[in-house]
Design goal:
- The complex is a heterodimer of chains A (247) and B (284).
- Chain A has 247 residues and is mostly helical.
- Chain A has two domains: 136 residues, no CATH class; 72 residues.
- Helix content of chain A is 73%, strand content 4%.
- A two-stranded antiparallel ribbon of chain A has the order 1-2.
- In chain A, helix 7 packs across helix 8.
- The longest helix of chain A is centred in the C-terminal third of the chain and has 32 residues.
- The two termini of chain A are 46 Å apart.
- Chain B is of the alpha/beta class and 284 residues long.
- Chain B folds into two domains: 175 residues, 3-Layer(aba) Sandwich (Rossmann fold), CATH 3.40.50; 39 residues, no CATH class.
- Chain B is built from twelve helices and ten strands.
- In chain B, helix 4 runs parallel beside helix 6.
- The chains are: A mainly alpha (247), B alpha/beta (284).
- At the A-B interface, helix 7 and helix 8 of A face helix 3, strand 6, helix 4 and helix 5 of B.
């Protein structure tokens, strides 16, 4: 079994944690609070030994979004209190504040879920959802999609090779590649649709729709900490709500 | 022996198709027998398999006429889900016969048992047994998507026989296998028959078909030309006219007979080649 204190948590505990961060930054308006989640998430990522891919993923995706959102807010948010100007745009204090609070929330929620998917195996997560009542069909759709994407990539390579032998140019300039798009993509889509039927038959042959309860080789264990942590999250959330409403 | 599957005047055409793929098919399949369906391409073998497995009418729509009975009960009264336990179906294309949700061959083979709700301890035991029976223990940790055609075919077969159905419908199980792999698959099928399963097999390799099966059903253009014990069917004129390959030994024997060599009986298995002429020679 996995000995890592973070990774060995039940997938739902991790999922509730991401939800907990989401709810908390919605309750607490302060952007410093929301930004403060980020270092916390980094520490968790470091403990789970996924800090490097976690940060590089955030830099590649979330960062760009944050910069754009921040600049948009900074320049275009309506406000009175002008604190500077650039070219034909005015920078307002309201814009700055709004930009900070929006980006802080996006960063907190976005990185919480990015981290979630870094530290959870989707298979485990789907199994956990199945355990709490998701229908097996739903579980199948999620899992099969994950497996079928690499399979389709493999198949598209095969089709590409096949089209090459028939004289379709697939390498070269952008226009050549664009031209090759249809003769390679069409068979890929059609064959995928065709194989859906056979896959349905496969599933049926494996008694997918058999009446009665299914069993599973894949077992998730819930340790005491997985029972306690969700209540801790709920407790903190209630505390935050009370603090917001009454103080 | 009582028939486990009975077809009475069954005709079928696929949706949006004008042609009848099967025409007035009537046949009985006895419990515990090994029946092979032979016929040229496009004769309706795969469609017949789909009917036997209940995918027609449960899964494929289209026009179906006539009566199909499984264990004396009309096929339409079963639910598709119930049939999974009763009839195992290994179909032609091994490349799509993967559940698509499992990372290892072991889990893949276990998938059907999970769906049937078999207790986990039993699953381990049964999968283990089938892996060694089909000789794929070495593949157990491999990803099913990364296997070769022949390996997938064995995994597909293993995934079905692990569920221990009473009837096995097997559509060309050896299309991707080398000769040794093919023989081995046939040995497994024979073993299944010895365990009392009813086997319905579609196969083109006539040598093996003749070697193993009790009965033959010859299909031609959607019609049953003849059904009966293997040797009787192979000896009949109807089979001769159907333009289907004979087992090699039968072909040689028939050719020799035509040349005037008297036959003791019509050989259909390799091992019979010595005895089918012997007595005659002794008499001369």
């Amino acid at each position: 079994m996995n000995q890592n204190p973070i990774l060995s948590l039940h997938p739902l505990t991790k999922f509730y944690f991401a939800l907990f961060i989401t709810v908390s930054v919605i309750i607490v308006p302060n952007y410093i609070f929301a930004y403060a989640w980020f270092p916390v998430l980094m520490i968790i990522a470091a403990v789970a030994k996924v800090a490097k891919p976690f940060i590089s993923f955030i830099l590649k995706t979330l960062m760009i979004l944050l910069v754009i959102v921040f600049l948009m807010q900074l320049f275009f948010y309506p406000g009175e209190d002008v604190i500077g100007s650039w070219w034909i745009f005015d920078l307002t204090h309201e814009g700055l504040m709004h930009g900070l609070s929006l980006t802080s929330r996006i960063l907190a929620i976005g990185s919480a879920f990015i981290l979630f998917f870094r530290i959870v195996d989707v298979k485990d997560f789907v199994k956990a959802l199945e355990d709490i009542g998701m229908p097996p069909t739903g579980a199948y759709i999620v899992l099969s999609t994950l497996q079928i994407i690499p399979e389709m990539r493999r198949q598209s390579n095969t089709i590409m090779e096949a089209q090459k032998t028939r004289g379709v140019e697939t390498d070269g300039s952008l226009i050549v590649r664009a031209k090759a798009f249809f003769p390679t993509l069409t068979p890929l889509i059609l064959s995928s649709i065709a194989s859906t039927e056979e896959r349905a038959i496969t599933l049926e042959s494996r008694a997918f729709s058999a009446p009665g309860k299914k069993t599973s080789l894949h077992k998730l264990t819930k340790r005491p900490i997985d029972r306690v942590l969700p209540w801790v999250y709920i407790g903190i959330i209630i505390g935050l709500i009370i603090w917001r409403v009454f103080l | 022996m009582t028939p486990i599957i009975q077809l009475d005047n069954v005709s079928y055409s696929y949706p949006v198709s004008e042609d009848w793929i099967l025409k007035n098919v009537s046949l009985d399949i006895k419990k515990g027998s090994f029946v092979s369906i032979v016929g040229n391409n496009g004769s309706g073998k795969t469609t017949l398999c789909n009917i036997l497995r209940g995918f027609i009418p449960h899964f494929h729509k289209g026009d179906l006429e006539g009566a199909i009975k499984l264990d004396g009960t009309d096929m339409s009264e079963y639910q598709l889900g119930q049939l999974g336990e009763k009839i195992g179906f290994v179909f032609q294309n091994p490349f799509t016969q993967i559940s698509g949700v499992k990372d290892t061959v072991f889990e893949e083979v276990a998938y059907g048992l999970e769906n049937l709700g078999v207790p986990v301890e039993d699953i381990y035991e049964r999968v283990e047994e089938v892996l060694s029976l089909v000789k794929i223990q070495n593949l157990r940790e491999k990803n099913p998507f990364e296997l070769s055609g022949g390996q997938r075919q064995r995994v597909a077969l293993a995934s079905i026989i692990v569920m221990d159905p009473d009837i096995l419908v097997i559509d060309e199980p050896s299309s991707q296998l080398d000769p040794i792999g093919t023989e081995h698959v046939f040995e497994i099928i024979r073993l299944m028959k010895e365990r009392g399963k009813t086997i319905i097999l579609v196969e083109h390799k006539m040598d093996l078909v003749a070697e193993y099966s009790d009965e033959l059903i010859v299909l031609d253009k959607g019609e049953v030309l003849i059904q009966g014990p293997t040797r009787d069917v192979l000896a009949s004129d109807v089979f001769n006219k159907a333009q289907i390959q004979y087992p090699h030994v039968t072909e040689i024997a028939l050719e020799l007979q035509k040349q005037g060599v008297p036959l003791n009986f019509l050989p259909i298995r390799d091992s019979e080649i010595t005895t089918c002429f012997e007595n005659d020679r002794g008499n001369k």
